[in-house]
Fold this sequence. Notes:
This protein is α+β, with helices and mostly antiparallel strands.
Amino acid sequence: MAEKQKAVAKQEKVAISKRDPWALKKWFSVHAPSYLGGVFIAEVPASGAQMLLMRTLEVSLYDLTKDISHLPIKLRFQIHRVDGLRASTRFKGLELTRDYLRSLVRRGTSKVAAVTEVKTKDGWVMRIAVLAVTTHRIGSAQKSAMRKRMIDALVKKAAEMDIAQFLKEALEGTLAADLFVAGKKVAPLRKVELARIKVLRYPPEEEQVAVKEVAAEAVAS
């Protein structure tokens, strides 16, 4: 009898180990924030809505716009709300690819890097890294002066805009163009880019998370 019980237990263990874990998961449709159009980003599997919260996804801006010039722009989104099988995200950051940044710097030019924290008028606090490339080599005094001009312009611009306006100008290149104008007053420039954006603090409404589990009949259908 003991041997028979062991055999049954072993068979049950094998059956459990062979059970497909994917069969127990649901597929959720993940969307960009409303201030970026709410467009579809990806479908992701999860065993439940709670498991999706705070998960970060990285996509190329090209995936959203199909504009080939947007390939070097990587966006990070964080899931913070789930309603049924739809997951909503908040913007978490932006980063240009290393290959693209390296391609900007050429022999006989100078690289001017500036990092600062900004706050939008609706309470988003972000750390932003700016990269400027000059047409010819410049000295440390000119670099410092250019860095100060770009930081002052960036902080001022951010304070005048909400997050939707800020990201629109950042992604369309308008913000970089404004920094180009500010920096070229010190020395001729070849290119200015927002190399990195990282959200440090969200406003209260963005900090809130919410989950509305999908109904069982919806999954079955």
